[in-house]
Amino acid sequence: QLLEAKASLSLAQTQHALQLQQAKAQINNMVPKKQFEQLQNTLREEQCKTQQLQESLQQQAEQTCRQLVRTQEEHEHLLQAAVEQAEGLEHSLRNAEAVLAERAAQLRDAQAQLSRNKLLIEELRGENRRFAMALQAAELKQKSMEEKNQLLEEQASALKQLIGKITPASLS
After folding, report:
1. Cα–Cα distance, 17 to 24 (Å, whole number)
2. What sections of the sequence does the record tag as coiled-coil (predicted)?
3. How much is the pLDDT for 34?
4. pTM for the full model?
């Protein structure tokens, strides 16, 4: 029994030493009350700052979201305006192309008419040359006829004179 008691005592002493050592380790790991309170105060301050930062971030996120929505709406309006402007320009372009096609057709018609007019002018010039030659020939003929007429008038005058001379002589 004594041996058992000694063994129990030894075991209890060993356990006590271990517990004492664990208690010392816990005490060494423990922070003094004042330092603990300071750490708690610092923790609360940091938690407040964190809360404020979270609230600030939340506000900034909401503001950024609203701004993003406004920007998106503005971009949609600008895009719509650009689409409408592009449609207007496309319509104007189609109108201008139609006018241009019409003018091109008019120019082709005018060019064809001009070509026909040039041919007519060439024909008229040819006719004019022929008329000029015919007129020149007629003038030459007329001059020749006038000369013949002059000659005949001179011959008639000479005959009249001769008859005038012969008639009194034959009457007598």
Report:
1. 10
2. 36-165
3. 81
4. 0.40
